[in-house]
């Protein structure tokens, strides 16, 4: 499934993509259970709640989607083109991994990493597909980073690499926007702050479930800036692959349903170009991860 959060008339709702349509889980489940003569069952109203509710809730969501797919139930489907998608979820925590592609580590410089280099992005940095991310006037060097993001589906604590992927709900596309001035020019180097400005974590357009994507070992990822490709990489080049990251992180913190791991970016970010290139109001970004989806958003000036 491709799990989405979308804007309805009165509130944000959750559902899934079905071809060129979107199906809201609760109305479709209500209809499916009524048709079977079963009592109503209320699903969680947001994506974080759905993931936390576990396998039983996901089974009901899949049932709702299958019922809506029947030809006679077209009224349960909305055209995808007419729906405003939001960030697929508001994570409990966002754990980022720095310098995790060999080519990006080379362009950044510094010693070879013996363990993942972790930073945090706050939930206030989350924005969604189609959003305009405002660049604060004080953010002098905003930059892009296309990433495969892992969405946790089952609590992972002290898990092995062999068990790690069993804890993945799915994957989404993430732009780890970063103010390089805060990251590199400030006397004490404020990486998490430079990556945690409001809106500086666009993600989406959906969560492609683990069975939809398959193994995350060889996925192409690209970033285009104003129609020109600026990054192109493949997850086969991750220094610390997805399973390794989950296992390593779970030695220190419990990973809960809805937590997100941003796995790193390949070479081609703006700061290390010659001359450097930084984002400005009006810039358009298109970020794609193979088998996961395409995330598009733009940049705006201060409000």
Strand content: 25-35%
Q: What value does the Rg take, in angstroms?
A: 19 Å
Q: What general outline do the C-alpha atoms trace?
A: globular
Mean pLDDT over all positions: 96
Binned, the helix content reads 10-25%
Please write the string of helix (H) and strand (E) elements: EEEHHHEEHEEEEEHEEHHEHEEHEEE
Give a short account of the largest sheet.
11 strands, mixed
Query: What is the straight-line distance between the termini?
Result: 37 Å
Q: Which structural class matches the secondary elements?
A: alpha+beta
Give the low-confidence spans. Answer: none
Extended strand count: 18
* Total of helices: 9
Keywords:
about 300 residues, alpha+beta, eleven-stranded mixed β-sheet, globular
Structure description:
With 303 residues, this protein is of the alpha+beta class. Helices cover 21% and strands 31% of the residues. It contains nine helices and 18 strands. The strands form three sheets. Strands 1, 2, 3, 4, 5, 6, 7, 10, 11, 13 and 16 form an eleven-stranded mixed beta sheet that branches. A five-stranded mixed beta sheet has the order 8-18-17-14-15, with no helix packed on it. The chain has a two-stranded antiparallel ribbon with strand order 9-12. Strand 14 and strand 15 form a beta hairpin. Helix 1 crosses helix 3. The chain is globular and about 65 Å long. The two termini are 37 Å apart. The mean pLDDT is 96.
Task: Give me a quick take on this structure.
By secondary structure, the protein is of the alpha+beta class.
């Amino acid at each position: 499934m491709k799990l989405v959060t979308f804007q309805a008339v009165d509130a944000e709702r959750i559902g899934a993509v079905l071809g060129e349509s979107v199906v809201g889980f609760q109305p479709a489940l209500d209809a499916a259970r009524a048709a079977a003569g079963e009592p109503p069952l209320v699903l969680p109203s947001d994506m974080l709640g759905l993931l936390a509710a576990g396998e039983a809730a996901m089974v009901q969501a899949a049932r709702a989607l299958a019922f809506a797919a029947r030809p006679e139930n077209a009224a349960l489907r909305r055209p995808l083109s007419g729906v405003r998608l939001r960030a697929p979820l508001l994570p409990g925590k966002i754990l980022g991994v720095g310098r995790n592609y060999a080519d990006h580590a080379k362009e950044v410089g510094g010693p070879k990493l013996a363990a993942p280099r972790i930073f945090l992005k706050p939930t206030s940095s989350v924005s969604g597909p189609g959003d305009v991310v405002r660049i604060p006037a004080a953010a002098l060097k905003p930059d892009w980073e296309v990433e495969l993001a892992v969405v946790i589906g089952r609590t992972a604590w002290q898990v092995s690499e062999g068990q790690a992927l069993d804890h993945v709900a799915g994957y989404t596309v993430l732009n780890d926007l970063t103010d390089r001035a805060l990251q590199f020019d400030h006397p004490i180097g404020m990486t998490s702050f430079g990556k945690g400005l409001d809106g500086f974590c666009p993600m989406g357009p959906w969560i492609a479930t683990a069975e939809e994507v398959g193994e995350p070992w060889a996925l192409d990822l690209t970033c285009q800036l104003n129609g020109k490709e600026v990054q192109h990489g493949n997850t086969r080049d991750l220094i610390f692959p997805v399973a390794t990251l989950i296992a390593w992180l779970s030695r220190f913190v419990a990973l809960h349903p809805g937590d997100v791991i941003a796995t790193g970016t390949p070479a081609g970010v703006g700061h290390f170009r010659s001359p450097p290139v930084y984002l400005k109001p009006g810039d358009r970004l298109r970020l794609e991860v193979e088998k996961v989806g395409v995330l598009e958003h733009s940049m705006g000036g201060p409000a």
